[in-house]
Amino acid sequence: MDIVVAVALGAIGSIIAAELYAYGPAIAHALIRRAVARLTKHEQTRFLEEWLADNREFIGNGQKVLHAIGCCVGARAVAKVLAKPQITRQSSDLKEPATSHKRNTTGDESEISEGVTLDMQALNELMKAKVLDGLAKRTDLEVLINGLRTGANKDILRIIDELIIQSQEDLS
Amino acid sequence: MAEYDIRLTRPMLKVLHYFLDKPREKRSGAEISKAIGVNSGTLYPILARFERAGWLASEWEQVDPRDAGRPRRRFYRLTGVGQRAAHTALADLQMPRGDLAWTS
User: Fold this and answer.
1) How does strand B56-60 pair with strand B74-78?
2) Chain A contact probe: residue of B39, B44, B88 with most A CBs at under 10 A
3) What would the CATH number be for the domain defined by B10-92?
4) pTM of this structure
5) Structural domain range at position A121
């Protein structure tokens, strides 16, 4: 009798496992949809597309489901990270780093001279730190602006102007 | 020890180390996960944190999802700030690139 039950349970288990395996991609997609539901509406669109695309790169249904489970686990942490305000670089971040890079002038200028592509976000942060630093030290605003404008393009100039106006409003 | 905006964990260092190998290359989350063996549950929060700090920048794959018949991938690349931070982090921990204890 025990043998019959064991065989029956084994057969049922195999059928369930086979079904689950066959529905692997569908299960993975459902899990990813569930995971992105933990994010804000704005972020949901981005992460749904990103995670579904990544999921396709995994071979085998097992790996797809594991990746999707990971998305569920990580979604809460991602939401937490994105909920935090963006890190603002302080003037201390512009100090000489402990690397072999030789920096001749300021942080952003040396980046450009080294041929390293800086993204606008990072550049924005550096500029903001410089403006705030200058204002805190009561550096003459005109000197500061002229310094920042050296070698800057139109986008950077616009950011600088916006930041200066914002900083002046903050101080007043 | 240098100052960081982020408290670096071992998986974070693995990600930085991976990006430093070819700093200008763009990589998708799946690619990174498979290459360094960090699962998606750990990797995506790390990528989000680095992107938030300006160490990584991301952009969509240049394809039309309707034409391709699949969702676009999101590619990450190391920024100049990230490159400096990664160099400093690995140097401070005396982990020369290509010689990390846990990858050997």
Assistant:
1) antiparallel
2) B44
3) 1.10.10.10
4) 0.61
5) 91-171
